[in-house]
Amino acid sequence: MIDSKLMASKPEDAGVDSEALEAVFARAKREVDEGLIPSAQVAVARNGKIAGMRTFGRAVQGGEEKPATDETLYCIFSCTKVVVAAAVWTLFEDGLLKLDERVADIIPEFATNGKENVTVEQVMLHTGGFPYAPFSQDEWGDRDKLLEAFSRWHLTWEPDSRFEYHATSAHWVLSEIIYRRTGIDYKTYIRDRITGPAGLDELFVGLPEEQNHRFAEVGWNGEPVEPPGGWGEVTPEAILGFNRPHVRAAGVPGGGGITNAGQAALFYQALIHGGEAPNGSRIMKAETIEFATNVRSEDRHVDLMFKNPVNRGLSVIIAGDDGNAFMRGFGRTTSPRAFGHGGAGGQIAWGDPETGISVGYCTNGFTEWMNTARRITAISSLAGNCAR
Asked: Do 107 and 180 contact (CB within 8 A), yes or no?
């Protein structure tokens, strides 16, 4: 439940134009009405408040198909990466971690099969060279198995020689770095340092058992079809695995966050306001966020399919001013400084420090990749136009 103090009584009270916000809602509802996805949820926030939030459609929740509501929880898949990254950013802020450190010096189990010189920065930029390193869903949550996996993993290519998306492997490494440098399990650390102080009590990395009845089970519209270039380890079977409670409970750091659109939007309100959360708590310094959200990937690091610069900060994507922001999930109306991350099914979470707008979009439906790309562009573009 979102604190009522963080919900604007009307959009204008949050500095958002009502008509522009209704256009966001209409676009989110359209694909549900057309039967392309079973349900969707969207929220737009500004000035520390949710200007509006709507949920459309039906979803299987607790084993029963019923209307999705604002209380329904969704897996946000790779949008989770920035939540985990924010926890890592605090390690830099606290002097517990440096970008140029070798992972092997922090996690000795990682120092095998040519991985000895992979740095923390390379892991966070997806240039570490182990994009397909396997770790079975059935072993998620078992730290001993994870350490065994680290020792087995090998390089696919030389570190920093290219960019290739590490769907889960890089963030498993980051989760263990959090533990090695704090002595605290990453899920607990995220709750105690980031989501708890920010008042985001329903932004879960690891879904508690008592919340399973609210989770919208995921599924495909028709036969699962992978996009051109494939998804690597993000297979249809892996996606459907999130319909198993133990997978949701594991809180896979690269893609297992579960929340609602409002909490996702409020998370970015904290980041685009210099680390001050909407409830007034400070989760990190403004300088830390600036450090983490500058583009660090060089022009030679390009998307393998579209050949555009990837515009990566520390486990976060930056919109950029090269005309390709819409290819990165930010639509066509955000400022170059907007940053965030998308999810495998077209989920969206980003914030724009120049306009003050942040957005969260959730769905449990997977559909044809080009349709998903058009939806992301449309919703992000409409949300970017909401500032009053």
From this structure: yes
Distance CA 239, CA 188 (A): 24
Q: Which DSSP helix (H) or strand (E) runs through 49?
A: strand 49-61
pLDDT digits (tens, 9 = 90+) for 142-171: 999 999 999 999 999 999 999 999 999 999
Bridge partners (DSSP) of residue 44 are 52, 359
Which pLDDT score, from 0 to 100, does residue 223 have?
Answer: 76
Q: What average pLDDT does this structure show over 17-26? A: 98
Nearest to 175 by CA among 136, 205, 133, 132: 205
Residue 347 to residue 368: CA distance in whole angstroms: 14
Whether the Cβ atoms of residue 360 and residue 260 lie closer than 8 Å to each other? yes
Per DSSP, what are the bridge partners of residue 50?
A: 7, 45
Give how far Cα 213 sits from Cα of 79, 180, 207, 271, Å.
22, 34, 11, 30
Quote the CA–CA distance of 216 and 256 in Å, as a whole number: 13
| Per-residue tokens: 285 | 């310094």
